[in-house]
Structures are given as C-alpha cells and as structure tokens.
Amino acid sequence: MKASVLLFLLSVFIWNCRAQSKSEVISATLSSAKQGDVVILEDFLTTDFPKIAYDKAVMPGPQFMISDDPEYIRIPEAIVMQERTDAGAVRLYVYNVNGVKEPEKMPRKISAVIKNLGEENMHLRMLRYSSQKPSMNYFQIGKQGLYDYFSSRETNNVRTIKPGEVIAIDERLEKQVIMYDELVHGFYEFVIDQPALISVLQTSPDKEGPKAFHEIDTIIPFSHVNAGRGIFPIANYKVTSKDTIDTNDGVSQLIVADGSDDPWITGTIGKKAELARNVGNYGVLYHTSIKWKSTGGKGLALITWNCRSEDSQWCGGMGLTMEMFDEHMKKSVIQYPSNQLVTKAAPEAILIGIYKPDLSKDIQEINFTYSPPGASCLPTPLVLVPIDL
C-alpha cells in the first residue's frame, strides 16, 4: 500500500516537473522572439484552451458590401454583384478571380463602378483606399490588402458624379489586365451624398468599366458559396472582455469570426433582398479591448496559429494584418508573420506582441483592431500566454 502511494506521488511529481519544464520552454521561446516572428511551440497549441468571454456591440459604421460569390468569374462578360445603397458611408470589399476557361482562358478586367441614382450631383469622397496588383499569390494579397486599408488615410480625394452617370470607383482596376486565376482585391471606404447603384463586373481589358456596365445584361446568380455577396448593416464591432485576465489563471483564447460563438453577419442580396450571409465576416472590423492583470510579475504573450491547417487544401497557410495600439493608444499596423509570408501549421505560431506588467497599474488593457484575413481559413485564435520576463 505504501509503495503504491509512493509511486503515485512520484508520478505526480514527475508530471509536475515536466509541465513546469514545458511551461518554462514556452515562456523562454516567446519572451526571446521578436514581434511578428514565427515561433515553434512543441506540444502546446490546441483548440481546447479556455475561451475568453466577451461582450460584443455593433458600432456605428458604413453600409457594407462584399463581392465574393462567385469568387471565380467563369463568364467573360458579367456582373457579379449589384446593390443599391443610400447616401452615407460605404465600405466595399472586392474579392474576385478571373476564372474564364470557356471557350478558352483569356485576359479580363474586373472593375467596380458606381451609378448616381439621385437627382443632384453626387460627391464621392474616398476615406480609405486599398487596391492590390492582381496576382495568384492570394496570401500576399490578403495580408497587403489589410495593411494598405489600415494604413490609408485619403485626403482631398473627391469626385463629382452627375445624375445618371456611371464612373469607376477605383481607376487602378480600370488599368489592370487580369490573367486566368489571378485575384483582384480591393478594399474601400467612402462617403456619398446621393443614393447609388454599385456593381462589380468582369469585361474585356480594352473596355472601360462604365461602358461595360451599360452593355452587360448578365448578372450571375448567387449560390451562397465562399464568403458570399450582398449588402450588410453591420461593418464594425466593439469587443470587450467580460472579465479581467489574470496571468495566474493560465492560457486563454479569444475566438471571433467562427460562425458559432460569433455568428456570421447577415444582410440582403439584389433587388429581391434575398438573405445574404458573410461566411467569415470578411471585411468586418473588430475593435478589441482585453483587460488583464499580472500576478507575480508575469507578462502576457499574444499569439495566433493556423488551427485549420488539416481541414482542406485551401487551409495550408495563414497570414494576417492587425492594427495594434500601445499603452498610449499609439497605432502601429503590422503584418503577421513578419519574417515569412504565412504560418503553416502547429507547432508554428505567430507572436503578435508581448505585454509587460506596469507596476503603477492594477489592471491594464490590450487594444487592437482585428479583421478576418482574406485567403485564410477561420477562425484564427488569438491566444494569451502568461510568460516570465
């Protein structure tokens, strides 16, 4: 009996030593890494970390449109998204690929155009502008697209549109030739003072988008695949942790844009206002604040990883861009990872940032803006790991 008790106590002691050693290795790895680095965390990453409970509130924001259904445009001349919008702020996310194979593969143009439906001149004032060169490197475009959007602050970019007139929203798209399988990625935020009709279309490279708009009579039906398409009333969320994270409580994770704990936003498609769903909440901004406190002088490492790597051939990599704010709310826009294009799978993780305890404060805050990264599978867990500094 005594022998079995001793063996049990010995096994518990050994297990605790191993756990402590593993924790020390993880802590040392993270504390010595640079922000944005891919780090190797053996036998650590799991989807079973305790979830951080949070309050989520809809923030005032623009009317939001997305064009990603179909993602691959198979018809040479067609409209793939068309929505009416009221005067006010608009966010438009274009994510489409030249997918023409019949009668043969051919270069195309993909453009976004706007028609003034009002009776007076419309003034279109661009607020944020992100437009990438077409490419088959979808991960790079997704990362760079968010980086350019977060970094953009357009000034004095105002155009006048006469009643009934149609113009291109992005002149850069008008000048680009899209080869087969290349992605067109545009992310815009602008203000208009008249009602409008916004369309995303595919046409020949030598034809202007506004001219093609008047000639194309084919609107490709939606099929509720990919992220989706339509117009949505929600564009921004405020996410706030319900409880204060204590470093003494171990690892925890924030999960947004998973379709479960955080449902997909819904809106409408087309004239009939049929149900639209943004599967991925792509283009939605999550303005996030997490309260935390240090016990025993520990800090926190914020990491993320590709938890979907084994789900399909499309989930083999993950890269993102975030708006990060320091303790003085000074903003930095950072691409993750910064030392390579994407992270692939566990045991790889990306170090988003290290948060050190401030002895003058009982409770501190972690603040950032997250938006689901284009071309990556979701969710991308945001994991908080207590570390020794």
Overview of the molecule:
This protein has two domains: 29-59 and 235-387, no CATH class; 63-232, no CATH class. A hairpin with a 5-residue loop joins β21 (320-325) and β22 (331-336). The chain has helices spanning 2-31, 138-151, 171-174, 209-215; strands at 38-40, 54-58, 63-68, 72-73, 78-85, 88-98, 109-116, 122-131, 158-161, 166-168, 183-192, 196-203, 228-232, 236-241, 245-246, 252-254, 265-269, 274-278, 285-293, 299-304, 320-325, 331-336, 348-355, 364-370, 382-387. By secondary structure, the chain is mainly beta. The strands form five sheets. Strands 2, 14, 15, 19, 21, 22 and 24 form a seven-stranded mixed beta sheet that branches. Strands 3, 4, 6, 8, 9, 11 and 13 form a seven-stranded mixed beta sheet that branches. Helix content is 14%, strand content 39%. Residues 1-19 form the signal peptide. Keywords: Signal. It comes from Sphingobacterium gobiense. This is Copper amine oxidase.
In summary, what is this structure?
It comes from Sphingobacterium gobiense. Helix content is 14%, strand content 39%. The chain has 389 residues and is mostly beta strands.
Roughly what is the average pLDDT, rounded to an integer? 94
Q: Please give the number of β-strands.
A: 25
Poorly predicted spans: 12-17
Portion of residues within helices: 10-25%
**Structural class per helix/strand content?**
mainly beta
Shape: elongated
Radius of gyration, in angstroms, nearest whole number: 24 Å
How many separate domains make up the residues?
Answer: 2
Query: What is the string of helix and strand elements?
Result: HEEEEEEEEHEEHEEHEEEEEEEEEEEEE
Strand content: 35-45%
Q: Could you tell me how far the N terminus lies from the C terminus, measured between alpha carbons in angstroms?
A: 44 Å
Number of helices: 4
Question: Strand count, sense and closure of the main sheet?
Answer: 7 strands, mixed
